[in-house]
Design a protein that fits this description.
19% helix, 7 helices, alpha+beta
């Protein structure tokens, strides 16, 4: 497929005027996708990845791994269409075993021409899964990046909650680490989108394994850490443009998002230095990114600071958000018909999550 450059325009209509005026804008897509168990086939002795090997419970072969890469590459190359025919400029990812699987991913034919860069750190998660940022080098130039650990302990929950079994975020029970819950770090990347500074936080918050209520405090702590990162950026620059994205393992109405992070669901609610969550509106419409027991929820979200929602498009600002939900991403038969098409013991799928995206646009003066 011929590479499509970003030099194109979209028409955007302002209806706040009695005579609607068409204007021309430049556009970038920013996306997040939980890759769901993007493991290679090699056993890592330092993580619990045994099931994702040829002899493991998932019978994870090189053929399945290669098909998984092709599947993910197809999705990443198409997110944001048709409004933007170019692939996303910035892609946050989760459930990534290591940098090597990302190196393999960006070499896939559907992605190779994009010349994607990788920012990745190994996290302390016991399953060996991390978050990362992929970016098109021709449009985004990173200037700094760091992994910020979420330090939480089992003792922080009540005795009743403590008795719940936590399966996903493995607990290391040792006196020297005070029963720390080892989970994913929060990845902060700062850089320039074309010539404008922007900050991105990639998240994969503690899971609900063991029960939503029993683990809620962990995600609330993640939300508060996220808020502190944003506050620190705003202290340096009150107009800092920050996008925080990820699999939050909570929906827009849970405490971690509403109280911990302080996200608002409508623009009019967002105060100065506040944050806006466009995915609350999508959740209200009954849409979702993950299904469980025939119920959909929006765990995957992209949330932004007030500086990105001002009606001043002389710089890159938020236009709209979406859930990428193409038919090929959905199971079309069997017990899980209508659910996201994920891995099975016989074939590599896409993911148990659907990708999400937002558009950032800027007016081009005539």
């Amino acid at each position: 497929m011929r590479h499509i450059a970003l030099t194109f325009w979209i028409l955007f209509f302002f209806i706040n005027f009695s005579n609607a005026q068409s204007k021309k804008y430049k556009i970038h897509t920013v996306a997040f996708y939980n890759f769901e168990n993007l493991y290679d086939t090699v056993d890592d002795e330092f993580t619990n990845d045994d099931e994702w090997t040829p002899n493991g419970a998932q019978h994870w072969t090189i053929e399945k791994y290669q098909q998984k890469l092709k599947n993910l590459a197809r999705v990443l190359s198409e997110i944001g269409t048709p409004e933007n025919s170019n692939a996303p400029t910035l892609i946050g990812g989760a459930e990534i075993e290591n940098r090597e699987v990302l190196e393999d991913l960006i070499k896939e034919p559907k992605l190779q021409s994009l010349d994607l860069g990788i920012i990745h750190f190994d996290s302390p998660d016991k399953r060996g899964i991390d978050v990362a940022l992929l970016y098109q080098k021709k449009y985004f130039r990173p200037t700094s990046y760091s992994n910020i650990p979420l330090i939480i302990y089992k003792k922080e929950i009540s005795k009743r909650e403590e008795e719940a079994e936590v399966l996903d975020d493995e607990i290391e029970v040792k006196k020297e680490n005070k029963n720390r819950v080892f989970t994913r770090d929060q990845l902060l990347v700062s850089g320039f989108l074309e010539n404008e500074e922007i900050h991105i936080i990639i998240n994969h918050w503690p899971s609900r394994s063991g029960g939503e209520k029993a683990t809620s405090l962990f995600r609330e702590a993640a939300g508060k850490l996220n808020r502190r990162i944003i506050d620190s950026l705003q202290q340096i620059n009150p107009q800092a443009k920050v996008l925080t994205m990820g699999d939050f393992n909570d929906g827009p109405f849970n405490k971690s998002i509403k109280s911990g992070l302080g996200a608002k669901g409508t623009k009019v609610e967002v105060a100065e230095f506040g944050v806006f969550n466009p995915f609350e509106e999508l959740a209200n419409k009954g849409l979702g990114t993950i299904a469980y027991r025939d119920s959909w929820n929006v765990f995957d979200q992209i949330i932004m600071t007030e500086s990105l929602i001002k009606l001043d498009f002389s710089t890159f600002s938020f236009w709209k958000a979406g859930i990428f939900n193409k038919p090929y991403l959905i199971q079309n038969s069997g017990q899980y018909k209508g659910y996201p098409l994920r891995n099975t013991l016989t074939q590599a799928g896409f993911s148990d999550h659907l990708p999400v995206y937002v558009y950032l646009i800027k007016e081009v003066l005539r």
